[in-house]
## 1
Amino acid sequence: MKINLTLPSARTVFIGVAAIVAAGLLVAGGWYWHATTQQRAMAVYAEAMTRAQPAQNPEATSETRAAAIRGLEAALTQYPSGRDAAQVAYLLGNLRFQSQQYSQARGAFELAVAQGASRTLRTLSRGGVAYTWEAERNYPKAVEAFKVALEGLGPKDFLYEELLLGLGRTQELSGQKAEATATYRRAVSELPNSRRLDEIKARLAELGT
């Protein structure tokens, strides 16, 4: 049997090569655009955070904090998902908290978590959410937020002691006496070398245990 092999025409070959080249250019262009965008975002974030540093001083004026907040929000508006967006959002949350703008601070902390914050920054941000609820005296919400912040953490992890005692404190304040007692007993068991052990035992004594 005779098989006829038909080679593609020069035009077909040219079209195929052109398509491959075009696809390569699109990929390269997309990578370049992403890289340059990230570089611009990092530069904008760095400038906003540098300008916000004086506002973190407890003695900073309300005007200084307000200007820093505007700068951080502008940076996040311009680049909402840059590589360091979580860090910017966390700093924004802190400044909002210091300005007693608890709802807005909570939104910034939640944004930091949503932006894929590192483990440490995620713990700090989740803790920040809990503290905003406590500051608003919404103790049941604070209890739940402290529980979320403690998820996946152990006695040797960063901020564990502070978050655990925050949980016990807000359980007390929300009238959950049995739960607070259990939390403080857990703290005594898991943190036997804590510098706050006397304080924890005092809370247990106050609760009648």
Note: The chain has a mean pLDDT of 88.
## 2
Amino acid sequence: MGINIKKLSLIVIATFSITGCNIYRQMVLPTPYYPGVESTVTEEPAPVTQSEASQTIEARTEVNQYTPIKESKIQVTNKTVVQRIPFPEQEYNSLPKTGSATVEGSIFITAPNGKRIYGKHTRLYLNPVTSYSTQWYKESYLGGAKMSQVDPRLYNYLKFTTSDEKGHFEFLNVPNGSYYLIGVVKCGQECGYSQLKSIRVAKKINVFGSGLSGIELTK
């Protein structure tokens, strides 16, 4: 009995249709590409390592350091600071440590109109005459120069007092010797200034015996 090839082919096709098999389902077609149309898929940036991050920070810092800024108006003074001589410790150690003299007087300045402006409740001090204090007196007080920072050991040899309402002052138990007597008077419009200004006054005195009285510390 012979096989009819045509009938056999029809049977095979019918069998595939019934079972739902489709040979075309095994084929993977490429995604179509349309020139001129941008893809909507965005790629995530690659992770940054710690070394790369630090390099980025350093680069930004360097840029910030060299970023031009607006210049501000800064006033620069050309005043020279006079360096103090080395503190003469032996010279100060040779000064007398005790005494019984009294130094008494008043502190004031004279305004342009002739009126006395007294140093009220101001601090005064006696500074022993040495090479160290003489440099200050000549360079700063008389010459107007700015001095470098004072040696803190100097304060062990100063004597202090405070004036009263009328500018009267008094030092007690002062050893005999030579001193710079120094104080401050505050004056404003009466002295020709737009605001209150502290005016330093200094004077060299020699203390001997029971002391000095009636001293006028003024300019």
Note: Residues 50-65 form the longest helix (16 residues).
## 3
Amino acid sequence: MRGPLAVPAEPYEFAFEPSQTALLVIDMQRDFVDRGGFGEMLGNDVAPLRRAVEPTRRVLDAFRRARLPVVHTREGHRPDLSDCPPSKRARGKLAVGIGDPGPMGRVLVRGEHGHDIIDDLKPLPGEPVIDKPGKGAFYATDLELVLRDKGIRSLVVTGVTTEVCVHTTVREANDRGYECLVLEDCVGSYFPEFQAAAIKMIKAQGGIFGWVSTSRQLLEVLEGGRP
């Protein structure tokens, strides 16, 4: 694929070199996205997150066809919870919390059914999966090593939830010098007002944390090969 390319975006177009760009799919896990998972157990409507699945799948397919790097993340903890701070387990005073048995196995525990990525976006062999104990994908993980090894400078960001794990990761990436394009229809929040505010914050002040576009705008450029 020739480059560089430029995608219509806010606050201005996002220019990127495809060979130096990776798709980051954040925490599209059953516990967050599927009905009956941890997110729904907390009283949330998962429909806004489900709406991000299909556009994310289309972008994922396009990156795979173009043989561009894809990286997935999952939030969760070791079975003995040794990497889960007591404060995280206690927060919310939940009847069923991290490590407790739930409909999809122990909540947010690595290796459990609910912890894994949904079938629609299942990683292919060779696509790195970053298991993270916190909200940000760079904290206590080898994500930066993976990106540097692949020569990545730009990230196309998708996943959930917009105001928590997506936002934290974009902020971490920004501090490390990565350029981030967040696809508005490929990220989701349980709360519409949080979604709107989080998107505005990313592109505010000349793109203080990054750029915002849509899957359609990206795919038109990526698959059309237009500079």
Note: Residues 5-33+45-79+117-224 form a domain with the Rossmann fold fold (CATH 3.40.50.850).
